[in-house]
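testing teh design pipeline on a random one, pls ignore if ur not involved
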């Protein structure tokens, strides 16, 4: 697999940290056992897979995947409760669900240390891929990876908002693209680079790029621009009137999935497995977009008469 993926025996030897002679001998030995050539070597500067080699490569990938599953199962059976759980959680996961899960985690596993990372967009998947965390809870699974196991466990959604003193909040009708084009839009930059070259719901010509969602939240509340924020973060701000939901049809407000993520070869232990299940349970209670808007509409209906009095 490594020779085929790197394109040469020398590159494969560097990737595997083995002598090139060992790699060449091992391939030759495999060919002898299979009684068929896997690479064409004559007349080519680099080894090229034969037709048989291409077919065997797919089998090799499947066998390696099965081996990783087997090793993972052995590791899970051999090891008991973890000493530490490392987890990365997206800011899109409702904070109340995070607090509830971690509170119960502390009560249930008092001897297990916790290493918690909270970040934006592709950061969660990057930390899982690098092995720096055992599990990730978030979205932005932008590119499937065979080494990562993902499972949908909930949903979230973004809403365009502004401070009540922002010019967009004073327009007494549904907003158009023309209304927002010249207003500063605050946008979070993905430090992971996983979404490089892709902008999500960036509608204004003027943008301020922000490193994190918490700063974006505070700047929008201060009236320095408008932008999208997770509904779970701004729920209380909308109820108190510190933020106003912008009726902007051009802003895509569809729900998107929240996943649990882990490496195929590094299965979670008992405590991490419990945490995944706990997030799945808590997120199943989160309101969908229709319920959220219904709650906000009911709130407006109950506060308007009081304002009139």
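output:
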């Amino acid at each position: 697999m490594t020779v085929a993926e790197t394109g040469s025996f020398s590159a494969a030897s560097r990737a595997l940290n083995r002598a090139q002679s060992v790699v060449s001998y091992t391939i030759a030995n495999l060919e002898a056992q299979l009684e068929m050539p896997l690479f064409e070597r004559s007349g080519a500067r680099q080894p090229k897979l034969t037709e048989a080699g291409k077919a065997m490569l797919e089998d090799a990938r499947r066998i390696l995947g099965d081996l990783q599953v087997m090793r993972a199962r052995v590791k899970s059976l051999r090891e008991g409760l973890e000493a530490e759980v490392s987890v990365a959680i997206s800011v899109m996961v409702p904070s109340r669900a995070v607090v509830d899960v971690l509170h119960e985690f502390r009560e249930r596993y008092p001897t297990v240390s916790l290493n918690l990372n909270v970040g934006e967009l592709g950061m969660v998947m990057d930390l899982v891929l690098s092995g720096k965390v055992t599990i990730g809870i978030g979205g932005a699974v932008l590119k499937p990876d065979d080494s990562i196991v993902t499972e949908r466990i909930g949903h979230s959604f973004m809403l365009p908002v502004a401070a009540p003193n922002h010019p967009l909040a004073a327009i007494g009708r549904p907003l158009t693209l023309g209304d927002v084009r010249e207003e500063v839009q605050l946008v979070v930059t993905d430090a992971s680079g996983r979404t490089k070259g892709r902008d999500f719901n960036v509608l204004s010509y003027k943008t301020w790029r922000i490193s994190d969602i918490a700063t974006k939240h505070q700047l929008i509340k201060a009236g320095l621009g408008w932008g999208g924020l997770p509904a779970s973060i701004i729920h209380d701000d909308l109820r108190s009137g510190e933020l106003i939901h912008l009726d902007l049809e051009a802003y895509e407000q569809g729900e998107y999935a929240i996943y649990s993520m882990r490496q195929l070869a590094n299965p979670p232990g008992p405590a991490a497995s419990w945490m995944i299940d706990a997030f799945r349970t808590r997120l199943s209670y989160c309101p969908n977009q229709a319920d959220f808007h219904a709650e906000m509409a009911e709130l407006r209906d109950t506060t308007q008469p009081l304002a009139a009095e």
